[in-house]
Structures are given as structure tokens and as C-alpha cells.
């Protein structure tokens, strides 16, 4: 056996226990940075195709001409935020293209009256949801056709249904000459709002008009496509990629706004406008509407598939085949595995190599031909990318006799899955054009199983103490007196991990500025489990949370969590969760039980006289195209029983958009405004914005109305999301990133 030499540099491609790095085999520690998607080991940036500007949006935030819709769809996954204003009316719109043929929108409207008040308000605020479905695509002679439901789950103030067709024509084909741009022609039939002017007939009888004070939130399916039907039409000419000229005929009579409230005077059915594509993501427009009003819009469109800054990461170190540097039979001996000191030295080499790539060695198990590495991923959003970096670190540091790598990502000391690969496959496939699929075909993905007794832990991990200082924001939405309120300040957090799986954590919150404390008082007839938000916002320095938790694996495909303490600003107690999630299955089943006590408004260590048991049985299923379906059934904070349906779409880069609704045994009357709990959420990863690897993200959950029915407690460290990210479905979808 060749004697051990001094520890070699991290970049050496061979194990220090068997032989020193050979001349010419040192790897470059200052490797160039490449864009995400570049070939492994190369420094050249991958070419980026500039996407075409998406369809422009109408005043309702959906593809359209000005105030009328068109049949166009945004690019798949597009997320659009827009603001429009005319005649004392403001509309804030959010639209998401959930599928290539389906989009959904949320809108918040303000109508400023000049005469009679609406619902007792001089400025009437309203929320609404829209959904659009494309019936067929545009073909040579056939236009694109879309069906839409507008304000189908709100109070109905903007309720409408429509069918619309759009056809595009190149100016040159129309005989206008080369470089004459493009013409879009849209025409449709509308009901409700869009059938209130110039009706040509009626279907299914009449429909009731809007009534102020309606709680909204219920689907008025008995009114869809009923009542008067009227035509509308629009033209859009794009002389170049920047400018658009628009004209339309509107079928909206604006009966409410031009009546008693006297919002504006409707003198004409024709609208005109001009729009300017300021940048790839920003569009601005100015308009003359209804013969009397000036209008403005601003639109921002983002697509998770096109980040503003390409993700740049240090190029991975190349895998040097063992046949190039272990050239003697003595290099392949397994004698090193009998020495505990040599194993510790290998562990230290592996830990150093992992650290350089943002990974932390938790434990390693070494045998003559196998190595199991348990590691923490602190840098990469993709667990597949982290596994690729971990495999390269082992290829750099393991003795030549080690042929099998077992890679186990760890969270809270608990293994989430095990990816088994052959080292010879790693060496042979690195520059193969089909490397991603080939390695997936030969790799094994299994349950992590228990930690082997012979595992060697890192000497630097436990006990572990960490601190952080970060800004926070706490928004409150849709107060009629002030639609948007915000608190902002700083969180001071600390955590202590005495052993694998155990964690003690807490956070102090210091509010620096805000106006949530001035929000309206709760009028709920249910226990005030969430609607006292303004009461909790009265204090500047608070204890946000303080808890102890433990994570472990009680058996194969099983994960467990126990938490006790102050979970969040409003509740503390004890919580337990069990998750069954086979590593190769799309299905997961969970059970959570919580006994909670409501915290006092000052958010220190005192409690209010409200305590309850809440818990849910959950089913999780991974659909195609990044969709994740979650069904929950159980007892909520106010003592109501029911279920929640959640549907999220998560892109490979961590961008997430989702929606949910909850139905319980609380009646619409007792629930109050909105009739039942519903909302949407989004999450934007920091690395998507900045182009630097990070696991951090920020996001919001927005409810049209915050009420007390259908509410859950927030418990830190729930199991499903991190477990799913390390399982087969996620690894398959991001298999190409193993080589990045």
C-alpha cells in the first residue's frame, strides 16, 4: 500500500489516501462562470432567444383591445400585473397564464362617485375573478376563439360572459407594402356587462342587475350566458414592434356608473388608443374612451422561463476518469477501508470539496467499493444540481476502489432520499450529449433509510448556533377605508441545533414603520381567529416565534415532525405531523394534529382565553407541467369542519403561482363578505431576479377578504415541500441540471 502523503489540494482528482495528485491533473479552482444551461465544464454563455412581445392587455388585465377582450392568450406561464384608470375608475389586475389554453385573473377595482354613493361609499371598492379558455387556435383561415367568464365569483358588478374571435393579418399580405406591420381584428358576443349596449337578442331570459352590499363569492352559474347579448369588436395595428394603434366598439353601457353615482358620461360606443412597448416587460398606453374620458394603463409582464438576469454559477469541476491517474494495481486496493484514521482524512477531504460548492457534509459512510454521503444543500434550489456537485466532490476525493456513490440530501438531520450512481457512469457520460437521460436510466432513487451505524459525522456541525438579521413586510389588503396597508421592520432570528433532527429557534420582530394598526375592527360572528390583525399590529417590539422541533424517519417512506412553543404571531401550542411519501411515487399522504392557544395581542408570553384543537388529513399529488394538487380535510381554527383544495404550479427555477379555496360547515351568511375562504399565492426566487445561486425566495398569499372561517395555524417546518423536492419526480424534471 502506498503511504499517505500530505493532504492534497481540493482540486486533486484522486484520493489522498492512495496516491498524490499526478502532474498535470490539478483542476482549476477559479473556473469560469457559465450561464444556466451551458454545457458542463464550458465557459461560453448559452445563446438566449429573445421572446416576442406578448399580447397587450385590456383595462381588465386580460388580452384585449382597450375595454373589450380579444381571443389571444399570453405565453404559457406568463404573469402579468397591470393598472388602468379612466373616468374615476381604477383597476388593479393580476393575470396568470396557467396553461397554454387557460388563464385566470384577479382584479381590485375602485369606483369614485360624483353623485349618489354605491353601497354607502363615495369610493366603492370591489374584487373579482376572471377565467378564460381558448376553444381553438388560429389557423390559415380560421381565427383564434376564446370563451371568457368575467367577475364570475365576485359581487357581480363587472359580471359578463363572452365568446370572442381574433385573426391576425400581415400588412404585406393585405397589399400595404413591406414593413407595414401587423393588423389584429377581434369580434365577439357578450352577455351581462358586455351585453348591456346594442343588444341584438336575448338568451335564457333576463338576469338580475348588480346590488350593492352583496357579500359575493358565490358562483352565479344560473346567470351565465343569460339575458341580452350584444356584439363588440376591435382593431389593433402594430406598425412595428414598439407601437400599437387601437380602436374598438364597446358593448358595455356602464349602466351603473352613468346612473345615480354619475361616475362619467358615456357619449359614444367607440374607444381609441395608442400603446408603446417601453421594454421587453413594460407596456404603456393612453386612450380616449366613450367620447368623454382620457384613460391610462401600465402593464408589467414576467415569465418564469425568461428571468431578467441569466443564472450564472461557477462551472463544475470536470470528472477525471480513474484510468488516467490510478495507473497501477496498487492504487485500486481496498486496504484503506480498514483504517479509521484514513476514513476520517477522506471525510475531511470530501467536506472541503463540498464546502467549495456550497454543500455541507453531514455524515459519510465508507466501505471498500461504496461511499454514502449525507449532505446539506445550502446553495442550489435544484436538488438535482446539488446531487451533481456532490457526486463530483466524491469523484475528486474517493480512492479508486470506490465505485458506488450513494447521495443522500439531508434536512434537519433526516435523509430525504438516496440517489445511487456508478462512478464509472459519471466518468463516461460527462460529455455525452444524452448524459442527463442516460444517467437517470442507470441511477437508482430509493428511500434514504436509517443512518448507518458506521457513519462518520462531521466534527464541526453539532452543536450548531446561527443568527440572522433580515427585513420583513406584513401587508393587509382591501380595507374599504384604505385598500392597502403595510408594516415593515427587522427580524432578529437565532437557532440552536444540539443534535441531528433537533432545533430550537426564535425571532424578535421590531416594527419600524407601518399603518396596519389603523385597520378596521373585526365584525365577525365567528371566533376572531384571524380578523384581529390590527390588534396584533399595535406593538412595536414583539416575539414572532420561539419553538423547539424534532424531525425524524420512523420507518421506510415515512417522515415525522414534532413542534412545541410559539409557532407564529397569533398562536402557540404543540403540533405533530406524519408524512407518507414513497420516493418514486407522485402521491403523498399526511396527517397533522395541533393543539393551540391564541397569543395575547402584545405577542410576548401571555395568552388569551381561546384554545382549540385543529388538524387535517392531506393528500398530495404531483401532476404534469409542474402542477401540484393538495387536498386537506379536517378542523380549522374557528372550530369549523371542511376541506381545502390547493393547486400550485412550480417552475424548475422555483417560481410558483397557485390558488386555493376552502369550504366548511360555516354558512355564507356567518362567514361574511366573500362567502368562503379563497385566494392565490405566488413566490419569486431570489436567484431568478439576481442571477446568483440562492435558496431564498419571497412571496405573498392574497385573499380577497380575510375572514375567520377556514383558517389554519402556521407551523414552521412542515414536511411535504422539502421532501418532495428531493424525490424522483422533481429529480427527473431537473435531470439536466445534474451536470451544471
Describe this structure in words.
The protein has about 750 residues and is mainly β. Mean pLDDT is about 90; it is low at about 1-50. The protein contains nine helices and 35 strands. The protein folds into three domains: about 80-300, Porin, CATH 2.40.160; about 325-460, GMP Synthetase, Chain A, domain 3 (2-Layer Sandwich), CATH 3.30.300; about 465-730, no CATH class. It is globular and about 95 Å long.
Please state the average pLDDT score: 88
Relative helix content: under 10%
How many beta-strand runs?
Answer: 35
Specify the overall morphology: globular
- Structure class: mainly beta
Strand residue content: 35-45%
CA gyration radius, whole angstroms: 30 Å
- In total, the number of domains comes to 3
- Measure the end-to-end span: 36 Å
**Spatial strand arrangement across the major sheet:** 23-24-25-26-27-28-29-30-31-32-33-34-35
What quaternary form is this? single chain
Secondary structure tally, helices: 9
What are the segments in which pLDDT stays under 50 over at least 5 consecutive residues? Answer: 1-49
Biggest sheet layout? 13 strands, antiparallel
Summarize the structure.
The chain is mostly beta strands. The chain has three domains: 79-302, Porin; 325-460, GMP Synthetase, Chain A, domain 3; 464-732, no CATH class. It contains nine helices and 35 strands.
